[in-house]
């Protein structure tokens, strides 16, 4: 029933203008404007969308909120770093990054945060 549904992901942010600048100018997402509820809207691939919901109670969960599938994670990291995005590095049991990238089974992944501390991820699928 929902197999072909287009998805809208909603993130809470503390300040809409600051978040719009990050998602539009640093991540390069297509900004669609503000809706009547004051939420900031972005177009994503495949018809999906991202809605940023400003509010004073916005707090990050400490978990990955969104993961963007990319074709070349190293090139994306280079491009985003050039726009001021800072990637995290980890050295934990079962999770170690090398130059911001961790190989997790069938994919590579790298993490960064938005201005509100929401954890975002890039992932690249590895050939089978």
List keywords for this structure.
single chain, 128 residues, alpha+beta, 2,3-Dihydroxybiphenyl 1,2-Dioxygenase, domain 1, 2 domains, 4-stranded mixed sheet, 2 helices, 16% helix, 38% strand
Structure description:
By secondary structure, the protein is of the alpha+beta class. It has two domains: 7-59, 2,3-Dihydroxybiphenyl 1,2-Dioxygenase, domain 1 (Roll), CATH 3.10.180.10; 60-128, 2,3-Dihydroxybiphenyl 1,2-Dioxygenase, domain 1 (Roll), CATH 3.10.180.10. It is 16% helix and 38% strand. The chain is built from two helices and ten strands. The protein has a four-stranded mixed β-sheet, with helices on one face. A four-stranded mixed β-sheet has the order 5-10-9-8, with helices on one face. Strands 6-7 form a two-stranded antiparallel sheet. The model has no long low-confidence stretch (mean pLDDT 94).
In short:
The protein has 128 residues and is α+β, with helices and mostly antiparallel strands.
The CATH topology of the largest domain, please?
Answer: 2,3-Dihydroxybiphenyl 1,2-Dioxygenase, domain 1
Query: Gap between N and C termini, in Å?
Result: 29 Å
The major pleated sheet works out as: 4 strands, mixed
Q: pLDDT below 50 for ≥5 consecutive residues: which ranges?
A: none
Counted by DSSP, the helix tally is 2
CATH class of the largest domain: Alpha Beta
Spatially, the strands of the biggest sheet line up as: 1-4-3-2
Mean pLDDT equals: 94
Which radius of gyration do the C-alpha atoms yield?
Answer: 15 Å
The CATH architecture of the largest domain is: Roll
Order of helices and strands: EHEEEEHEEEEE
The CATH superfamily label of the largest domain reads 2,3-Dihydroxybiphenyl 1,2-Dioxygenase, domain 1
Helical percent range? 10-25%
> Looking at the structure, what is the overall shape?
globular
The share of residues in extended strands comes to: 35-45%
Estimated structural class: alpha+beta
Oligomerization state of this entry? single chain
**Can you tell me the number of structural domains?**
2
Number of strands: 10
């Amino acid at each position: 029933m929902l197999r072909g549904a287009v998805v809208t992901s909603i993130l809470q942010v503390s300040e809409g203008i600051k978040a719009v600048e990050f998602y539009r100018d640093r991540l390069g997402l297509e900004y669609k404007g503000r809706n009547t509820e004051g939420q900031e809207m972005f177009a994503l691939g495949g018809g999906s969308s991202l809605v940023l919901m400003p509010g004073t109670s916005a707090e990050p969960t400490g978990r990955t909120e969104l993961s963007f599938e990319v074709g070349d994670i190293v090139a994306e990291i280079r491009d985003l770093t050039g726009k001021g995005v800072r990637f995290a590095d980890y050295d934990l049991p079962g999770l170690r990054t090398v130059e911001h990238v961790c190989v997790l089974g069938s994919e590579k992944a790298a993490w960064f945060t938005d201005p509100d501390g929401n954890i975002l991820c890039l992932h690249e699928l590895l050939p089978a």
